[in-house]
Amino acid sequence: MTGKSMREDPLFMRNSFETTGKWGIPIVRKQTIDLSNIELIACSDTKSKDNAVNKNKGVHFFVDDWRFNGIYDNPERTLERYSQYRFLLTPDYSTYSDMDLWRQLENVSKNRWVGAYWQSKGLFVIPTVSWSDARSYKFCFDGVEQGSIVAVGMIGCKRSKLHFLRGYNAMIEKINPSQIICFGTPFSEMQGNLIAVDYLASRKVVR
Fold it and tell me: For residue range 80-101, what is the model confidence (pLDDT) as tens digits?
């Protein structure tokens, strides 16, 4: 691939979508969906030509990063499979506090880019929001519109409850989400319109 063709390749440049913030993170647009009977399925439990029961669920990515890294690298490859489902949470690329900030920024950007890509293909997308320590607050909430539905993961957060709640409150202040899908048991201190989803229930896949 020549330099000119690379600059014309949208999957190399990754500049097809409207962005926001100092680092130009892609925007996942606010969408509305009825979550009164929400059910989730792990991305690792999805399959091509799934059954009607599973197709009515949303897909979550609260699993190890290696299970979904290929979505960003080659988003077209899995588009047909994921487009079967009712809605998609954006991939939960890790933002650990001991990870260099450039890696955290990269992972937040990949999260939003994939969401914007799916929306450009007509899919319903809910942004997954994650953070590490206070340094990440400069970018980890970018690319999510005010009043959006968002998703947060609780797996492993009990070991660092104070850090989690600080970031959570910063997220509430910045995004003011209309609803918050909470993957796992929420802390009693968490404010907002919470919708708790049981982790084990999400792994009970009908086949």
Answer: 999 999 999 999 999 999 999 9
Residue with tokens 């609260």: 62
Residues 26, 109 contacting (CB under 8 angstroms): yes
On the CB side of 38, how many CA atoms lie within 13 Å of its CA? Answer: 25
- Give 157-166's long-range contacts (Cβ < 8 A, gap of 24+): 157/184, 157/187, 161/187, 163/97, 163/132, 163/133, 165/189, 165/190, 166/134
Average pLDDT of the chain?
93
Rounded distance between C-alpha atoms, residue 197 and residue 7, angstroms:
42
Nearest residue to 35 (alpha-carbon basis) of 119, 151, 146, 115: 151
- Is the separation of the CB atoms in 100 and 79 below 8 Å? no
Round to whole Å and give the CA distance between 206 and 73.
29
Q: For the segment 30-54, what is each residue's pLDDT rounded down to a tens digit?
A: 999 999 999 999 999 999 999 999 9
- pLDDT tens-digit readout, 109-168: 999 999 999 999 999 999 999 999 999 999 999 999 999 999 999 987 877 899 999 999
CB 88 within 8 A of CB 46: no
Q: How many other CB atoms are there within 10 angstroms of residue 169's CB atom? A: 14
Dist. CA 121–CA 115, nearest whole Å? 10
pTM score of the predicted model: 0.93
